[in-house]
Amino acid sequence: MSGRLSGRRAIVTGAGSGIGRAATSKLRSEGAHVLTADLAGDVDLKIDVTALGANAAIVAEAAHRFGGIDIVVACAGITGMEPIEGHSDAFFERMMAVNVTAIFRLIRDAFPLLKASPHGRIILIGSVMSSFGEAGMTAYGASKHAVLGMTKSVAAEAGAFGITVNCIQPGAIDTPMTAPAFVARPEFRQRWIDKAALGRLGTPDDIADVIAFLASDDARFMSGHGLFVDGAATQHQ
Fold first, then answer.
1. Could you list the active site residues?
2. Is 183 helix (H, G, I), strand (E, B) or coil?
């Protein structure tokens, strides 16, 4: 299939649903070969990205199938709320394990193959929460600040090899991951709709289209950035 990404070889984690699933569909529609990984869903590898060796196994499988890697898209993530008073270690550690440590390992393990690619791309999923705080979201906010910091630091190192590194900072996106919170707190859902100048929640396709852009040659001189994709929610009062 022809397209902006024709013949390029990609990994997408968290591909079983939501943004990861939409990203997989979009990348394939642009001609990329995509290896998908998640704990559940219709994916190539059923795997827990927090397990030791899991990300190395994902990279090895992609290298085996495709002969190399050009694009890494880290969509696996979790969210949740817990007040700081009585905040459990387990909740915090799980958030960091999925949202930070697994991404670090995926980048580290894929880096040698990305160096060998003339089109190396690393695309992470951050959050608008990397620019402000929200009550009850200490663990999530900390994890997304870490993603933005990792983006900038890896970009500084990866540029010497022609690899671009960016993260997308979505606003409120209507996905299976966010649905329980929106159902439990309808006022929270409405608040984000009202915050967005465009007057709606985002969709996985809204993010997937930006992922495809960052993966393409159209974004060849963009690196080290967190791109807000939030319907102007962070600037609309």
1. 140
2. helix
